[in-house]
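BUG: 3D viewer hangs when loading the predicted structure for this chain

Environment: internal workstation, default settings.
Expected: structure renders.
Actual: progress bar stalls at 90%.

Input used:
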Amino acid sequence: MIPIAGQRQDERELPSVGLAVGRGTGPELADAFERVLEALTTGVRIVRSPRLYHSYVSLRAEGDVARIRRLTAEDAAHYEEFCRGLAARGTPAVFRTAVNAQSLYLVRQRLRAVKVDHLAAGGKSLLLVRDQAQGFYTGKNRHTDGQVVRTLAFSRDITEAVIVHALERARLAWPDGGPDRIVMAYKFHLLDGAFDAWAAAIAARHGVRIDVFQPDTVNRNLLAHDLPDRTLLIAGNEWADIMHVVLLDRFGSERQENRCTENVYLAPEAAGLVEYQTVHGSADDLAGRDLVNPVATIRAAALVAERHVGHDGAVQRTETALRALAAEGVRTPDLGGRHSTSGVVKALLDALAPAAGERGMRDGALAGGS
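Structure tokens produced before the viewer hung:
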């Protein structure tokens, strides 16, 4: 287990949140996360991983393939242990900036991760549960001269764990009856009939109907008549990674630069730990320039504050402040603005400050203060 250096007794009594930082714009966004979380809460201990994880760009700068493979494995092993340690200590959430995908998916495979994103706009909603624990994105590489052979696997047990979690989340999203339709988007035609047979048996055991479609069929239905309201869409990475931004446009009316998502670990040794991340990547070309869009990170801090640190209303307060900033034209250049990362964060903190002051006065009055 990775130790927490310099931890005091009073710190251990505070609610804790993990923080893992990758290269590129990771350090700038980590600073934004810490500042916003502090503004939204009355006390939280941030447990930061001691390792600065590689982005793909920083790995490529390291040189040859052998060194990249070694550093990839080291980053994955370290982050996996960090997550296990957080879960063992009862830390409920971790915010992670973007890191190299190959390292990340090694961890997701070992800890059985799913990504959950509830998209809603225009009176329709979609719950996307993305299977990150199996398939092409996971697996191992074997290198020969001029060739990379990637070995991957699909598992009946992992498939059932993903479906069960998806059903649980759908009942939370729609507590008045659950999903109206359940669709799975996987390239199952390549798996000798095994995958769709598993899905049918799992559906029968849980008393639900699941339609298993090829990704191109889901795309055709999406273009022809959209997916019905209250659709639970369970998808393999091979399709969902590419289509996430399209689904955001169709159902979320949101740009990926502004959005965060959550990843849930299903492996018993990490159960209960939820990881938040931005949808956008590491943006290494912006590193150190104070120009990366912090909105997704700000929203992640608000979700962590409300869901895991017990500060009800943090999301609504943050969204109100973000709308006020947008109305004033406070935005980074990627959204057509002229403000820096730190400038947007400072403006947000200023917008939150009156509410924070009012909350403090109310708390003081309840405690008998003047």
